[in-house]
Q: What sequence folds into this?
């Protein structure tokens, strides 16, 4: 008696997309709670900083002549995206190797570690689109947008989130302990980055000897992009520079993660 | 599946030290050995998730190094630890996993119903995996591994940690698979499992193959027909062990008991009593793979 298996090898992109499908199956059950954590926080910030604190701030040269609400609205979207992507790329990735072991399960099918990583990346990007769009709509009700550049801010958020997320995915792929370093990452990198990357005030206010920290922060580049497409007044060259910087971070993070995924799943 | 002089090294450590194995289609084949014998490393190489360090390996007629995904498309894998998606339902686990094998949505829907039936989980279809018992999770893991109708099913310690009833239910499912023509490769450190399931097996120890054959064949070759087990009061064993010389073909002294290998257990036990030895308890039984393993390696399987 012979039997013949029904399985077949899936295409390169298809394999990654099937991972997205798997995440989507999970998301359909849990979307409300995730939206609460990823969508609500930026909105709270917008209410507190944009409306509350902003009511005490005079429009001036530092805000490009716009109200503080309009100044801070695009930057908060990008900051929220960075935080969300980083969160999605710490414990959830480590768990794929270590606790839930879903990466181990999936790579015993025709799907490869590279496709698992690709699926994670696409899924993170889609989640950023969803929460960015929700935030953009809420901010519209608050009067945070002055033009249709808001749509491009969602894209700037995705790009910034992917830059941060890719680097952190690379870190997670090479984390073999219980992930204690993620706590340090949040305390000493993510929170300072959120506070001092030009989200709430121009980095020109920072003393020169720490300003370079803002320059290397992906969040600052994303924030600049988000203001370029809403407030205007930026040259093409700086915009291209910010885009290129974020693209390089995505490529570097993805490459480090790729090696880590293969090293851990095929050994 | 064919392996010749197969070696797996992790840095300096040699987990598999040159093994030759051939598994024929439709056969149930076992790797028996203690933890750390190299069974799981071998399984991972066969499953095409661990490149071999040396030697030759063919799975379903293909080379894992060159055709990993094509081989995996036709394999079923039951890992040592369940790695189900605990936040999804039983049905969703089967759906999602089936899709990775390129099956259509209609195919996985149909297959999930069939597999839940097979694994006796139909009434739990919409329950999240978190809520299942250990035995149910194990059955679901096996059901999941069958989603692509694999020609070769790899089971790494399939019943470790399960209660006796759950084990028997699992074994029954595996017999059915075998009857359908699926080739099974099983690793285990339980000799009863190996005896139940395997047509043929190899005993592995320290990364090498110590013996190969059918369970009955191995017992006939490496052990006697019967075994007398004697347990003595604490402190008396050493003295007693010195006084059983010549009563059996072979004597093994374990920390908690003395084993006498003999053709006729009852007769041997009588002669033990004749010598004035008074064990706390005694047992006459048939030889098992456990005895084969003890003979070949000088150690027991499960410590």
A:
């Amino acid at each position: 008696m012979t039997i013949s298996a029904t399985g077949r090898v899936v295409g390169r992109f298809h394999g990654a997309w099937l991972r997205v499908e798997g995440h989507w199956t999970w998301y359909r059950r849990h979307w409300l709670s995730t939206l609460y954590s990823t969508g609500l926080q930026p909105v709270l910030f917008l209410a507190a900083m944009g409306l509350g604190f902003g009511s005490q701030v005079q429009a001036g040269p530092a805000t490009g002549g716009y109200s503080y609400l309009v100044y801070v609205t695009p930057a908060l979207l990008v900051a929220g995206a960075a935080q969300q992507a980083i969160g999605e790329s710490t414990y959830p990735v480590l768990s794929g190797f270590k606790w839930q072991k879903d990466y181990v399960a999936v790579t015993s099918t025709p799907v490869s570690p590279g496709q698992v990583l690709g699926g994670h990346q696409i899924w993170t990007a889609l989640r950023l689109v969803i929460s960015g769009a929700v935030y953009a709509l809420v901010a519209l009700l608050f009067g945070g947008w002055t033009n249709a550049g808001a749509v491009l801010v969602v894209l700037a958020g995705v790009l910034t989130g992917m830059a941060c997320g890719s680097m952190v995915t690379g870190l997670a792929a090479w984390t073999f302990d219980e992930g204690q370093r993620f706590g340090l990452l949040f305390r000493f990198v993510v929170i300072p980055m959120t506070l001092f990357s030009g989200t709430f005030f121009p980095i020109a206010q920072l003393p020169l000897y720490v300003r370079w920290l803002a320059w290397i922060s992906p969040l600052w580049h994303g924030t600049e992009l988000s203001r370029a497409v809403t407030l205007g007044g930026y040259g093409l060259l700086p915009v291209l520079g910010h885009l290129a910087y974020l693209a390089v971070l995505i490529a570097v993070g993805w490459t480090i993660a790729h090696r880590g995924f293969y090293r851990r799943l095929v050994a | 599946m064919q392996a010749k002089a197969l070696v797996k090294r992790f840095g300096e450590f040699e987990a598999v030290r040159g093994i030759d194995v051939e598994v024929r289609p439709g056969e149930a084949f076992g790797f028996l050995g203690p933890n750390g014998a190299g069974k799981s490393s071998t399984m991972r190489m066969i499953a095409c998730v661990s490149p071999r360090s040396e030697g030759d390996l063919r799975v379903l007629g293909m080379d894992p190094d060159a055709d990993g995904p094509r081989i995996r498309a036709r394999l079923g894998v039951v890992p040592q630890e369940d790695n189900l998606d605990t936040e999804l339902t039983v049905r969703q686990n089967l759906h999602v996993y089936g899709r990775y094998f390129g099956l259509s949505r209609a195919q996985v829907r149909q297959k999930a119903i069939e597999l839940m039936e097979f694994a006796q989980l139909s009434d739990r279809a919409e329950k999240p995996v978190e809520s299942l018992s250990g035995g149910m999770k194990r059955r679901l893991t096996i059901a999941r591994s069958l989603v692509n109708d694999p020609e070769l099913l790899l089971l790494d310690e399939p019943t470790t940690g399960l209660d006796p009833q759950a084990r028997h239910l699992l074994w029954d499912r595996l017999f059915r698979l075998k009857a359908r023509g699926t080739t099974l490769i099983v690793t285990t450190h339980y000799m009863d499992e190996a005896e139940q399931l395997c047509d043929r097996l190899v005993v592995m120890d320290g990364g090498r193959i110590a013996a190969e054959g059918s369970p009955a064949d191995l017992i006939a070759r490496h052990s006697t027909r019967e075994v007398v087990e004697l347990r003595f009061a604490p402190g008396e064993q050493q003295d007693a062990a010195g006084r059983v010389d010549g009563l059996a073909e072979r004597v093994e002294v374990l920390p908690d008991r003395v084993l006498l290998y003999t053709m006729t257990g009852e007769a041997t036990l009588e002669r033990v009593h004749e010598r004035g030895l008074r064990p706390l308890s005694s047992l006459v039984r048939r030889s098992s793979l456990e005895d084969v393993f003890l003979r070949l390696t000088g150690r027991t399987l499960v410590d």
Q: What stands out?
A: The interface with chain B takes residues 1-10, 14-15, 18, 21-22, 25-26, 29-30, 100-102, 104-112, 265-267 of chain A (CB under 8 Å). Chain A has ten helices and no strands. Residues 73 and 264 of chain A are 41 Å apart (CA to CA). The first helix of chain A runs from residue 12 to 52.
